[in-house]
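Worked example

This section walks through a single chain of length 306. The input is the sequence exactly as stored; nothing has been trimmed or padded.
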Amino acid sequence: MAADDSVVSARWLHEQLGQPDVKVLDASWYMPVENRDPWQEYQVARIPGALFFDIDGIIDKTTDLPHMLPSEEAFAAAVSALDIKNHDKVIVYDGKGFFSAPRVWWMFRVYGHNKVWVLDGGLPQWRASGFDIESNCPAYAILKAKAANSAVEMVYNGQLSSAVTFQTQFQPHLFWTLEKVKHNMAAQTHQQVDARPKGRFDGVAPEPREGVRSGHIPGTASVPFAEMFDGAPMLLPADEIRKKFEQSGISLDRPIVVSCGSGVTACILALGLYRIGRQDIPVYDGSWTEWEAQPDHDYPKVTSSS
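Given that input, the structure is written out below as tokens.
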């Protein structure tokens, strides 16, 4: 484990499992078109002792946009329900290897908890290493996951949730809104990078959400999220990550903001950039799903027909 890296190895986690200050989260999530249920999969195959972090449950309840960052109060209540304390080391993984876990890594960092890492290669790498998989899900694990979601509901309903033991400290420089991106189009303080597959970025492949056109925000560069890892999947070495961005015309000594479809895979780019020393990368939370829905004359788009 290195404090200046964004991932830990399966071997390191295997050696640390059971330590009272090491908390493991399954943050698996899948695109709607994949017809996979991460909650059901968690209950039949998980890293021993892992708790489930529901990306579609620990959210901002005031918007129709998918899985937006919850308020500080809601995040603190949910994480407290998962029995995570500020001194804990949090290790996040997902069922694909590198897909949704980096989103939760980013959420913790947005709220001031830097003792958080993604498991390099996720559950596939854990399995490939020959380590145990827990196939029975104890009642306490189910109760804690449900309590975390309920805590979010309570906060947004104006109710006090049960004892909050996790303290947050919002880091606004890591979180971008629609208006920040619009301002940046004129100010151009940050280079904007989109993590979606190239076809969706170019406007020639459909978006996975009904009614959303494909395309991109003008002036944005394309670095598809899958370029951050190899076939294992393992996060690429720092020098290879640098090349991926430089080949897309990104200057790594200038500010960068990352986006994607709905704020999930952008965090994979942020994870890769963290490995090369760029620990200050903001994510545009609403991403293309939010931008595409705005009036075209105020929020221009590059689509296949434009």
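What to look for: The mean pLDDT is 96.
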